[in-house]
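Table 4 source record.
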Amino acid sequence: MTAYVLVDVDVTDAEQYDRYRSLAAASVGQYGGRYLARGGASEVLEGDRVPHRLVVLEFPDADAARRWYRSPEYTEAKALRDGAATGSFILVEGT
């Protein structure tokens, strides 16, 4: 069953975050993932939540998404994200 990782991130250091993005992108593909949305324009249609930079990743299944998130390759990218951004990552299984 397809799975998605929904990311809402607040970038605080754009230069360091750019280095993170390069490593993160390379790791996503290694685990069968792909970007569906990556920081494009967003619009709140209902509610008072104000998102920051939104990213949507698609993986073949939840296990692949977990393997990616816990992988040595993404762990290296996460180290660059520390101090450059804060946010949340949510795993959602598709139907």
